[in-house]
Structures are given as structure tokens and as C-alpha cells.
Amino acid sequence: MPETAAQPQRRHVLTVALEDYFQAAALGTLVQPRQWARFERRVERNTLAALDLLDETATKATFFVRGWIADQLPELVREVVRRGHEVASKGYHVGALDEVTPEEFRDDLVRSREAIERAARRRVLGYRVGHGMFGIRDLWALDVLAEEGFAYDSSFYPRLRSIGGEAWRRLPFDHRSGDRILHELPLSSLRLAGLSIPFAGGAYFRQLPHAVGRAVISAWERRNASPFVAHFHVWELDPALPRITAAGLLAAARQHRNLGEMPARLRDHLRRHRFGTAAQHLGLEQAPVEGPAAPAAAIAPARLEPSPARRPPAVTVVVPCYNEEVVLPYLANTLADLRQHLGARYDLRFTFVDDGSTDETWAQLDRTFGARPDCTLVKQPGNTGVAAAILAGIRAADTELVCSIDCDCTYDPIQLEGLLPLLTDGVALVTASPYHARGMVMNVPRWRLFLSRGLSRLYRLVLGEDLATFTSCFRAYRRSAIVDLELREGGFLGVAELVALLSLRRRRIAEHPAVLEVRMLGRSKMKVLRTILGHLKLLSRFARMRLAERWAGALGRGHASPGGELGDGRRA
To answer: Is 463:500 a contact under the CB 8 Å cutoff?
Structure first.
């Protein structure tokens, strides 16, 4: 008799990844754990949507929780438990197993379990790796899990030949480690032509036609006595999921395709089949944990709160903004992080320059920062360009020490702690330098690096400045050395022009190695071909100025000019 919603055949296992969209495996090489707190949080609303869907279909599930989420949002974890679901561990920061040593893996295991148990007040029995899967080479991780007292793992997700000739590892098995036994519940896969084909939910439920998912689960029930172990992520129920611009087409498709259809597809599967928790299947009980529950954390993003500590010296941070409404929540959280790291050493003020935005940037800046006494908002009459916006912010500052950062935070602002100490007496500017021998570039396309490095070599040749980078907007300045500069170029070219003008004035310029990362949100405003041609024109202009200066110096060597200037261009 065919299976119906009213006549379920047996109970399968449903697992849910309780993590936010920026922690997804598709973004593992782009978004680092240190950046998690900077993104807009959507995990609360998406988890509640998942819980409502499970309530609607009378389904219980095992939620594999990031320990970081448990520390940030303990009330959310408690709500999962309150609604009758199991909570297990998905690690704290660790992503793929090949990124860590066994010691780091063990430390992450313990930290995550402690965080989840503090929040849930329930014993954590199970584990699933943060990214990727376990294979034959990773049996040592099962030993560590057994040693740490975990009852089961669900990190095997056989793909192609990842389990070698041991096809029995496709189905639940027991792993022995000394006198301990760890139960393994692999995510379900198909077996075709000797290969394991993953199909346990998540992206597979979304990417392929819904009829395929129906057929796979029904075929599994006919061919296997063990339960179908399914999974999905809470962010898969969010059709308005923000897009990480840096993700490639494949990663974007993995994360965003058919999000709008996912709730209906899941609802259909849960009505047609009976699902329960991993602990239920294994006959385990998630016992209470003694001790106080973790305190509730603030749901709202961190704000820039003034530090009560002594604040000299005062530093103004200038942030040029042009059509950056999608970036501003990330920026606000990043600046809160900056305040936390540098607030005890510097009295930080912030000047936001809206460079003629045509979206909601100005309104959002006003809502987020307008009422803060340490923040100043400047609105340009039109789009004048990033260099002109930075110069406007410098002129609006009331401190001698001024920094400029990118609104998209492609340079982590915490790196200012390396630039500011170099801004000693006599130094007019310190520039961040990803092309320095000790600098680094992460996930930026190679063609962009080739062009940027090539331009820097040309500027170094023309200006005679021993700098590795001339085009970075991430800098620290002495306001008195910059405020009277008149730039011909207001856009990206003006960033290099500013360095050139200081060089012609014989002002000292320093650089500090820095890490440049790919832009996470929004789109770059740079027109690449136009910018390259503009740089070549600008280089030609400064080459002519240098030649004229040297020619004048050669003619006037040893003789004071009528205007009181020495032959090397300095005043007597």
C-alpha cells in the first residue's frame, strides 16, 4: 500500500543546522569567524520560522547548534528546547576538519558543548562537523568525540568514493574507541554504479525538482531498513537572504537558488513521512544539566558605546559612503568591534561622508549614527568621488590625527592599531600596504592584483617613493599636512594623487603591511578601464612635473632663486 500522511511507515531522522547565513559552508573560504559578529543577524527569525514549521507538521528534530550562536543567543537555544527538540553541537568556530589539528578540534568540541549546555541546560549528546564531511581518513575525529563523552556523530555524508570500499558506512554504524562506542548516523546518500550520491536535503531538496526528492525518500524506504537521515539549514527558509557579493556564481547558486520554494517542499516531506530526533532513534535521553542557565544576550547588533577610560590621543575616523545602504549594518558592527579593541588607547570619533548617494544611505546613516555625540555626518551636494569625500571628512575633523577607512571594510579597521603608532612627528601620512612584503591579499581576483601591483610599480618609478602601495584608501594622516591640498581628481585617482602631492612637497610618507580582503557586501563603484586610463594620465602628469623639477634644479644648482628658494625646492 502506498504511503500517505495518515499512514506513516516508520520514523526517520530530521536534523537542522542552527547557524546564520554567513556561516554557511558555501562561504567558508570567504567569511572568517572573526567577521561573524559584523553581519546582520537573521538566525533568530529563521529559527523561529523553522520551529513554527515543525510545530505545524507535529515534527521533532535535532538542531545542530553553533556554539558561537549559543553564546550570542542563549534564549534562542532555550526556545528550541522549550518546543521539545534536541540540541546537539556543530562546533564553535571550526569549519572543515582539514583546517585544524586534533588538539584544536578537541578544544573547539569542548568549547562548543559547554556553550550549548549553558544555554540549553541539557546534556549535548551529538556532533556534526561545521563544514564538509568525515571520510575514511577522519576516523581519528571519531576517537576524539568518543573520548570527550559524545554519544553519537552525524558527520559522515558519503560522496562518490569518500568511504572507499567500505560501503556499509553509508548506513548507521558503531565506531569503537577503546572501551567506548560512538554511534554514527550518516546523512543519507544513494548508491549508484559503486558511487555514493548525496541526497539528504538542504541544497539537494532545493536545487532539484521536488518530485526527485519525493522519489528518493520513497525509494529509500523500500530498500533500507535504517532511517532516512535528512537535514536543512534554518537560513534556507529565508527568501530575502542577503547576498555575499564576494561569493562566486556556484556558491551563490548553492545558497540562494529556490529559497522561496523551500518551506513548501519541506512541509510536503514532513507531512508525507514521519521524522524524529537522533536521540529518539538511538534511544537516548537528553538529560538536564545542573547549574545556572546562560544569561540572555542582547538581540540587537552591538552599538558604539563610549569608553569610560582615558581617551587621549583623539583620532577621527573618516568613512566615505556612496550608495552603501546594504553595507551599513555590517559597518556599524565592525566599528563597534573597533571601539572595543582600540577604545582604551584612542579617543575615537567618526565622520561619515555621504558622497551624493541616491539610495537610502543618508537616511540609514542618520538613524544609525545621527544621535551619537562621537559621530558627525557630512552630506556632499553630489557625487564628488571617494578622494574628495575623504578630504571633506578630514576638513570636517577637529583632531590632528585622522584616519580614512573603506565603508565596505575590505581592510579590517582594527588594523589601524598598526598604522597610528607610525604617525610620529614629521610623518604626514601612513598608508596600509597589502603589497608590502609582509602584507597579504585574500580572495581578490588575480587580474585585479596584477593591475594594482603594476600601477604601484609605475608610481614608485615616477615619484621615487619607496612604497609598495599607492592606491589604498585605508590611511592615517596628520590633518595639518592634508587639509590645504587641492585635488584635481576627486575619485579613486585622487587617492594616488594625494600621495603624489605630499611627495612633491617632500613630506614624509610611511606604510604598514596590511591585509586586503574581498568586498563582502554591495558592489564596487570603480570603473576599472576608466580608472586604469586615468591613472596612466595622472602618472604622465606627475612624470612631467618631476622632470620639470629636476631640470629647474639642474639649472639652479648652487644658486638661490629670486624667490628665496634653494635649488632643491626647499625654502631658505
So the answer is: yes
CATH of residue 333: 3.90.550.10
The stretches of 100-202 forming alpha helices (DSSP H) are 102-120, 139-147
Mean per-residue pLDDT, 541-550 = 76
pLDDT tens-digit profile of 408-444? 999 999 999 999 999 999 999 999 999 998 999 887 7
Looking at the structure of the chain, the number of domains it has is 2
Question: Where in the sequence is the domain holding 383, given as residue range(s)?
Answer: 314-552
Q: Does a structural domain hold residue 375?
A: yes
Q: What is the mean pLDDT of the chain?
A: 87
What confidence score (pLDDT) does residue 555 get?
61
> Model pTM greater than 0.70?
yes
C-alpha cell at 300: 540587537
For the chain, report the end-to-end CA distance as a whole number of angstroms: 103
Amino acid identity, residue 371? A
Residue pair 228/188 in contact (Cβ under 8 Å)? The answer is yes
219 and 121 fall within a common domain: yes
Q: What is the H or E stretch that residue 320 is in?
A: strand 314-321
Q: Domain for residue 108, yes or no?
A: yes
Q: Does residue 149 lie in a domain region? A: yes
The reported pLDDT for the residue numbered 78 is 98
Are residues 38 and 146 both part of a single domain? yes
DSSP one-letter code for 158: -
Same domain, 442 and 529: yes
Cα–Cα distance, 255 to 233 (Å, whole number): 10
Largest CA distance in the chain: 108
pLDDT of residue 553: 63
**Residues 278 and 13 sit within 8 Å (Cβ to Cβ):** yes
Q: What is the pLDDT of residues 114-143, one digit of tens each?
A: 999 999 999 999 999 999 899 889 999 999
Ordered alpha helix ranges (H), 429-527: 446-463, 479-482, 492-504
Whether residue 184 is found in the same domain as residue 71: yes
Alpha helix positions (H), 406-527: 416-419, 446-463, 479-482, 492-504
pLDDT at 5 over 60: no
Angle subtended at Cα 122 by Cα 51 and Cα 270, rounded to the nearest 5 degrees: 30
Q: Is 464 left (phi over 0), alpha (psi -120 to 50) or beta?
A: left
Same domain, 431 and 480: yes
Tell whether omega for the bond before 295 is within 30 degrees of 0, i.e. cis.
no
pLDDT in tens, 358-386: 999 999 999 999 999 999 999 999 999 99
Identify whether the C-beta of residue 512 lies closer than 8 Å to the C-beta of residue 427: no
pLDDT at residue 172, rounded to an integer: 94
Q: Say whether both 427 and 482 belong to one domain.
A: yes
